[in-house]
Amino acid sequence: MITAASEREAHSGPGSDAEPRAVAIADGVHWVGALDPTLRRFDLILRTANGTTYNAYAVRGEQGVAVIDTVKAEFAAVFFARLEQVARYDEIRVIVLNHLEPDHSGALPELMRRAPQAKLVISKRAPAMLKALLKADDQEIRYDTVDTGDEIDLGGRRLKFLHTPYLHWPDTQCTYLAEQQILFSGDVFGCHHCDPRLFNDRVGDFRFAFDYYYAHIMRPFKTYVLDALRLIEPLPLKLIAPTHGPILRERPRRYVARYRELSGADAALEPVPADAPPHFTLLVFYLSAYGSTARMAEAIAAGAESVPGIRVSLYDLEGGEVEPFVDLIEPADAIALGSPTLNGDAAKPIWDLLSSLAVVNLRGKVGAAFGSYGWSGEAVPMIEDRLRGLKLRVPVAGLRLKLIPTDDELADCHAFGRALAEAVTGSGAQAGPTTRPVIEYANLT
C-alpha cells in the first residue's frame, strides 16, 4: 500500500501536506483543508481508490474572516497551519459548519478555543447534534442558527445560507458567497478523490468517484436533492467548493446538471466550449504490496504530466471496485497497469480489470505495464502480453524495478511516463527505458 510518506514525497504541489500551504481559490478566499491520500475505506462502507480530502475554507471580508467547515480531528495540525497563513485568530468573526459530521467538525473545539470571539453558525436543525458532538449544554456554546434567506455581512462579502436538510444528515446546509458567486456546498457535489492539485480542471478523472459518492451518500435522499437543486440552480455559479474532493471551478454547472440527471430528472449538460483545447487521457492503475510499485506509479504519472496536452489519473486498485473503472477506460486514450510479481504472476485485481475489458473497444488505445519485483518479475511481460491480446498498442517497453526503487530508478520511471505520454500524443519519440536485467532474489515487492 502507498504510505503517507511516499505520497507526500511524490506530491509537492500547492495542496501537499508535506509543507502545508493555504491555496487561493478566489480573491480573499482560501482552501485551508487537509489531504488523506491513503484512506481506502470511508465510514466502513465506501471504498476510496484515491483517498479523500477534508476541505475547509477561509473567507476574508472588510470586517473580519469567516471559516467555513473544519477537518477531521487527526488532521487538525495541517488545518491550523494553513489557516494561520491567511488569518489571525483574533480576526475570525464567524465559524460556519455546513455539516456536523466528525470529518468536518473534528477541529472545531480547538478552533473555538483559539478564536473565542467567533460566533458559530449552524443550520436550524443542528443544535441537538452540536450539543451531542461537543458534550456541552446551551450555556457553554455560542451559536446562531440560520435558515434559507439568512445572511451574514463580512464587509463587502455576504454569506447567504441555503437550508438543504438530509444531504446527507438532517443538519446539512449550503453557504453562498454572493459577490464572488461561490457555493460552499458541504457534502453536496463532493466525492472521495484526493489529488493535491485540488481543482477539477487539474486533477485526474474523478467521474466514477463523483457518481459513486452520489449513489452511496445522496441517492437515498433523492427528494431532498431535488429540493436543494431548486435553491441552487437559479444561483450564478463561478465555483463550487465542496467538503470532499476536487474544487469545481471549470464549468461548475455541469455538476449541478449531473445531480439532476442522477436524481431521475432530465437536464441538458453544459456544452463543451468550442475553443476548449484538445487533450489526451492516460489512466494509471496499480497495486503495491510494500509501496514500491506505488512509488513507480507516482513517478510515471509525474513524467506523463510533463508532456503538454495530456491529463493523467492515478488509481490504487486496492481501494476501488473494478467495474466502475471500465467506464473510465472506454473513452480514455491510454492505460498503464502496475503490479508487483506475486508467486510468478501479476496481482489478481489486475487480471480482474483486464478481463472486464472484453466488452470495451480498445483497438488503437495505448497500453503499458510496470512494477517492482523481488525474484523473477514475470508480472510486467504477462500484463504486456494481455494488453496486446486486447488489441492495445504497447509502444513503450515495460518497466521492471527490483525491490525498492532508487532515486535514479525513479528518474527512469519519470522518463517512462514521459515516453508513454509522447507516444499517446504523438509529440516525441516512442521509445522508453529498457527493461533492467532480472536477478533472482527474495520475492518481496
Identify the notable features of this structure and list them briefly.
445 residues, alpha/beta, Metallo-beta-lactamase, Chain A, five-stranded mixed beta sheet, elongated, disordered N terminus, disordered C terminus
What does this structure look like?
The structure is a single chain. The chain has 13 helices and 21 strands. By secondary structure, the chain is an alpha/beta fold. The longest helix has 19 residues, at 407-425. Mean pLDDT is 86; it is low at 1-13 and 430-445.
Number of helices in the DSSP assignment: 13
Share of helical residues:
25-40%
CATH hierarchy class name of the largest domain = Alpha Beta
CATH topology of the largest domain: Metallo-beta-lactamase, Chain A
Number of strands: 21
How much of the residues is beta strand, in percent?
Answer: 15-25%
Secondary structure category: alpha/beta
At CATH's second level, what is the architecture of the largest domain? Answer: 4-Layer Sandwich
How are strands sequenced across the largest beta sheet? Answer: 1-2-7-8-9-10-11
Summarize model confidence as the mean pLDDT: 86
Q: How are the secondary structure elements laid out?
A:
Elements: H1 4-10, E1 23-26, E2 29-31, E3 34-36, E4 41-42, E5 46-47, E6 52-54, E7 57-61, E8 64-68, H2 76-86, E9 92-96, H3 102-105, H4 108-114, E10 119-123, H5 127-134, E11 143-146, E12 151-153, E13 158-163, E14 173-177, E15 182-186, H6 207-218, H7 222-232, E16 239-242, H8 253-262, E17 280-286, H9 292-305, E18 310-316, H10 323-329, E19 334-338, H11 348-356, E20 366-373, H12 379-389, E21 399-402, H13 407-425
Parallel strand pairs: 8-9, 9-10, 10-11, 15-16, 17-18, 17-19, 19-20, 20-21
Antiparallel strand pairs: 1-2, 2-7, 3-6, 4-5, 7-8, 12-13, 13-14, 14-15
Helix pairs in contact: 9-13
